Amino acid sequence: MGILSNIFHKIFPSSHPAAQSGGQAAPGSQQRAPQPTQPPAQQPAPQTAPQSAQQPQAAPMQQVDVEAVLNNMQQQSGQQLNWRTSIVDLLKLLGLDSSLQARKELAAELHYTGDTNDSASMNIWLHKQVMRKLAENGGKVPADLKD
Question: In Å, what is the CA distance from 143 to each residue of 67, 114, 118?
Answer without folding.
Answer: 11, 24, 26
